[in-house]
Structure formats: structure tokens, C-alpha cells
């Protein structure tokens, strides 16, 4: 089976697709993976092509926020999306796949698949496009609206309308031209793969049968290893792990000070992963009980932690939960408040803590609550480790009809 996987965004959007590409290739399928430039993910051994947009550079220079997207839309975000949409069409026509599996940002994927007469499969790491009455669209509304929950999912379809002109321009090169391209982009996919663990997200009863909650797409790299100094620190006693990924808004020094203070209040050491600048260590907080690194493989590091403090990104939530470690979620934007609520609802940590209220006092109390959730976290982690989301996703793809 020839599978074209298309993703776009930052590292968290690329890693699951790379894991699926590795698994599908190992199963004997011919796989091509389309990714943004400079994805920050090891793609060795994969047939990977670039999609002419560098989200890493955009985030590194301007940060991640809705206001960033608006401010730099005309100069960078819009042109980047335009190039990516056209590149996705180009690579689909070049590869001639039997099925197109795509991230929601790749708006031209459904039209390209339709033009070739093959199925297209939508991937949701966060369930933002499949309506349900059980909770509002993550990232759109942060509280239950009851009977209005389903209506919040209309917001997710707005991207198709926002980029309508670019979508039509990119699809003009398709066989038959761009007629019906917008309708195809809005039409239901042949199947939807929600790459999340049922331990963190119960499958809504009103999802259609074509939507599959597969479990997270996790594939440990056999060559991954912790830096010796990090491994020595991790094995030398309990510590608080803190990571905020690409979330750099606000004062990273103040956050670092709060994390170190909360850890010391509970007799813990601190390991700060600074990522793209979300955390920093001030000189007055330095000491032998604190280690700072830009990053480290979470799957290898997290199991050694007593608890974690993080931003609530889908990938980080799953990595920490898989490790059996309780967490304090400090959400910044988008789907992060949703995952923070899921962590709390499942007894894996306290209620999400606002980043604007991230003081040493508040975090000390939250870490105390998290430490009390350790047994529950270990139980859930064991169940997550038994899941094989990649196998479940591949089974759906192998069972797709030859024509949509």
C-alpha cells in the first residue's frame, strides 16, 4: 500500500506522523512523509519531503500565540501556509498514493485525494474537528456549554474559509482543476484517527463509527539515550521535572524561580528543560540540586521524576502520563487547558494552574497535590503503556476501501 502522510506545524505535530511512517514502513508499506522544513525530529530511514514552510523559525522568532498569527499573517504566516498547501498538492501528484493521511492544517489534502480517486484520512492529535455534545471544541471554549457544545466545532472549519483563495490556487494543478476543492476540504473524511489515549480521553458516544480513538502514536527510538550527566542526575534521587516546550510568553526567570522554590519546599531536586525559552534559571536559584538543559528524551527521563510541571501540550501530556508520573499543568493557549482538565479529571494531578498565577506559593501547593496522585498516575501509566496506538491506526488504514 502506498501511503502519503502529510503534516504541518511544530515538533509535536511531526513526531506522531514520523512514528506512524516508521511503523507502516516496517509493516511493508511504501510510505512518503511530507513535513515542514526544520521539524526538529529525526527522520532517518524515512522517505521524507519538505512542504516549504518553517514553523520552527516562525515560533523561534515570534513565539506561539493567536496574536502572533494575526500580527505576522501578511508577511509570514499567510505566505507560509500558501507554500505548504501548494507543496502538499505537488507531493500528492508526484507520489500517486493509495491513501492520503493528513494533519488538519493540510487543507488541500482532501481535494488532492479526491482528484486521484483515493481515500483521505484526517488525523487529530486533539479532537478539534469532530463534533460532540460531550465537550466543547478544545482551544475554542474552556467550559462546558451543554447543548451548545457541538456548535463550537464550527470554528475549526473557519481555516478552510480563511485560506479559501490559497486553497483554490494550489488545487488548480489537480486533474480536473479546483472545481469542488472547497467542498472537498469541508467534506467528512473517509476515516478520522484521533491519536490520543482512551485513558486520557473517553470516546464520546456520539462520534460516528468512522472516527477511531487509536491511542497515542508513540514509537521509542532504539538509539535514544540520556546525556550521562542527565542520567546521573535522574538516578540520584527524586526530582521535579519542569518543561514548557515552545511556550515562551511571560517571564521565564519567574517561572524557573517558582519551580525551584516549589521543588525545594517538598525536598525535591529540580530538572529544568528550557525548550524554546519558556524556563530559565536565575543565579540566585542555582545550586547542586538544580540541573538545566535545553531538552532531553521525555520517554527516558520522565519515569525517574517524582512529579512534572508542564504546559499541557498533547505530546507532553501523553509522555508524562505514560511514564506514570503525576503532573501540574500550567496551560498557555489552544488545547492546553483541555488537557489540563483531562489530567485533573482522571486523578493525575490538581486542577490546571494559571500561568499568570504561577507563584512559588501556588505551585508549592499544586505540587503537593500532584505528589498525592502518584499511585493513581502509576496505575494509569501502566494501562497506557499497554496500548499500541500505531498498530490501531495502521489497522484502520489497511482496511480502507480502495475508493472513497
Automatic annotation (TrEMBL):
GO molecular function: hexosyltransferase activity; UDP-glycosyltransferase activity
Keywords from the named record: Transferase
CDD domains reported for this sequence: GT1_Gtf-like
Flavoprotein is among the record's keywords: no
Domain Erythromycin biosynthesis protein CIII-like C-terminal span(s) in chain numbering: 294-387
Biological process terms in GO annotation: carbohydrate metabolic process; vancomycin biosynthetic process
Entry-linked Pfam families: EryCIII-like_C, Glyco_transf_28
Record keyword DNA damage present: no
Superkingdom of source: Bacteria
InterPro entries: EryCIII-like_C, Glycosyltransferase_28, GlycoTrans_28_N, UDP_glucos_trans
Glycosyltransferase family 28 N-terminal domain: residues covered: 4-92
Protein name: Glycosyl transferase
Amino acid at each position: 500500500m502506498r501511503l502519503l502522510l502529510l503534516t504541518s506545524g511544530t515538533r509535536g505535530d511531526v513526531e506522531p506522523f514520523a512514528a506512524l511512517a516508521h511503523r507502516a514502513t516496517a509493516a511493508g508499506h511504501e510510505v512518503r512523509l511530507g513535513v515542514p522544513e526544520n521539524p526538529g525530529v529525526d527522520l532517518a530511514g524515512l522517505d521524507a519531503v519538505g512542504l516549504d514552510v518553517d514553523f520552527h523559525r516562525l515560533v523561534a522568532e515570534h513565539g506561539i500565540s493567536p496574536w502572533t498569527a494575526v500580527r505576522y499573517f501578511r508577511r509570514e504566516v499567510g505566505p507560509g501556509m500558501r507554500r505548504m498547501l501548494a507543496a502538499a498538492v505537488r507531493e500528492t501528484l508526484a507520489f500517486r498514493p493509495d491513501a492520503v493521511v493528513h494533519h488538519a492544517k493540510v487543507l488541500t489534502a482532501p481535494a488532492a485525494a479526491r482528484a486521484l480517486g483515493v481515500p483521505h484520512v484526517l488525523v487529530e492529535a486533539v479532537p478539534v474537528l469532530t463534533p460532540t455534545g460531550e465537550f466543547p471544541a478544545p482551544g475554542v471554549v474552556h467550559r462546558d456549554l451543554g447543548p451548545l457544545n457541538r456548535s463550537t466545532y464550527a470554528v475549526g472549519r473557519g481555516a478552510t474559509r480563511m485560506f479559501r483563495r490559497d486553497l483554490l490556487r494550489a488545487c488548480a494543478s489537480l486533474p480536473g482543476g479546483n472545481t469542488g476543492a472547497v467542498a472537498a476540504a469541508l467534506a467528512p473524511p473517509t476515516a478520522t484517527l484521533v491519536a490520543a489515549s482512551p485513558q486520557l480521553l473517553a470516546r464520546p458516544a456520539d462520534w460516528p463509527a468512522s472516527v477511531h480513538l487509536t491511542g497515542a502514536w508513540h514509537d521509542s527510538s532504539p538509539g535514544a539515550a540520556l546525556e550521562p550527566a542527565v542520567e546521573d542526575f535522574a538516578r540520584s534521587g527524586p526530582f521535579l521535572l519542569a518543561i514548557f516546550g515552545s511556550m515562551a510568553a511571560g517571564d521565564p526567570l519567574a517561572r524557573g524561580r517558582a519551580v525551584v522554590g516549589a521543588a525545594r519546599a517538598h525536598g525535591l531536586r529540580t530538572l529544568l528543560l528550557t525548550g524554546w525559552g519558556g524556563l530559565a534559571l536565575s543565579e540566585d536559584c542555582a545550586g547542586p540540586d538544580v540541573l538545566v538543559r535545553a531538552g532531553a528524551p521525555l520517554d527516558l527521563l520522565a519515569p525517574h521524576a517524582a512529579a512534572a510541571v508542564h504546559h499541557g501540550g498533547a505530546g507532553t501530556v501523553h509522555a508524562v502520563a505514560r511514564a506514570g508520573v503525576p503532573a501540574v499543568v500550567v496551560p498557555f493557549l489552544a488545547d492546553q487547558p483541555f488537557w489540563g482538565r483531562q489530567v485533573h479529571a482522571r486523578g493525575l494531578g490538581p486542577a490546571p494552574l494559571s500561568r499568570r498565577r504561577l507563584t512559588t506559593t501556588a505551585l508549592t501547593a499544586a505540587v503537593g497535590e500532584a505528589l498525592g496522585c502518584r499511585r493513581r498516575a502509576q496505575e494509569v501509566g501502566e494501562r497506557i503503556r499497554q496500548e499500541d496506538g500505531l498498530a490501531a491506526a495502521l489497522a484502520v488504514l489497511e482496511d480502507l476501501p480502495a475508493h472513497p
